Every structure is written in C-alpha cells, then in structure tokens.
Amino acid sequence: MNRKLSSRISVVATAAVAGVLIPLAGTSYAAGCNSTGCDNKGPMTMDCSDQYTTTARTVNNNGRIAELRWSSTCDAAWVRVHNESSNPIYNAYGYIEKYSSSGTFIKSLSVRVPESGSDWSNMLGGASYNYRVCISFVGNEYPLKCSTKF
Q1: How do residues 31-44 score in pLDDT, each as one tens digit?
Q2: What is the per-residue burial (b if ≥16 Cβ within 10 Å, else e) of 42-53?
Q3: Nearest Cα to 95, choosing from 34, 146, 42, 48?
Q4: Under 8 Å CB-to-CB from 6, ≥6 apart: which residues?
Q5: Residue-wise pLDDT tens digits, 42-85
Q6: How many whole angstroms separate alpha carbon 9 and alpha carbon 56?
Q7: H helix or E strand, kind and range, residue 13
Q8: What is the pTM of this model?
Q9: Is the CB of residue 150 less than 8 Å from the CB of residue 55?
Q10: Is the separation of the CB atoms in 5 and 92 below 8 Å?
C-alpha cells in the first residue's frame, strides 16, 4: 500500500512541476520597451513589430517608399522603407521625425533605402508626440518629400 501511495505522490508531484515550467498556449509576453523608453531601439528586438499598424502616413519619392509604422503595444513609431524604382542609382534615405504636440522638432532617425527588399529604422516613442516620415536623396537629386504628421 505504501508503494502505491508513493507512486501516486510521485506522479502528482511531476505533473505539478511540469505545469509550472511549461507555459500555457497563447501566453503573451510583454514588449521590451514602452513609450520614450523605446527611443532608438529596434522594433523587432523589442517585440514591438508583432502588433503594428502601417498608418496612412506614407510617402513615395521617385519610387522610394517610406511608411510610418505605429505599435500601440509599445507606444512607439518607426519608418519602414522599400524601393519600387527600377533605377537603383540614387542613394535614398527614409527618416522618421518626432515632434512635440506644439510642433517643435525633437529628434529624427534614418535608414538607407535598399536596392531591393525593405528595411526599417529604430523607434521613437511616446503617444503624446507627433511623427512623420520623409524620403531624401544623397546629393539632393530629388527634393525632400515628407508625409503629414500622425
């Protein structure tokens, strides 16, 4: 009888430990940063890119596209860039700019537009700020184009 009881206790103890060590399906994990704590941090690295919105703030400058992306999980924004032009000669950069609610420029980050595929900048954070994205070209072959603020 003691042997059966000992065996049952062992099975119950093992199940209890396994339940503690194995996370349940659907468990969500917190993002690595929030708001201004996300400034100059990568959206992928900080788990902010899983639930983002591509806002209506998109600009096309001669086939170079900049999209303003917003993560409500992290309260942060970044620019995603890609090249739809067949002319890869000109070097272009995408920018995200951060402004105070009164319109004062605070900070910007940039990323080079690749010849193919896409890339993105680090983030700027804070829900009480305004953001816009821009595309510029090295040597000013084309004029700077920017979106409206979000």
Answers
A1: 789 999 999 999 98
A2: bbeebbbbeebe
A3: 146
A4: none
A5: 998 998 877 667 677 899 999 999 999 999 889 999 999 999 98
A6: 60
A7: helix 2-21
A8: 0.74
A9: yes
A10: no
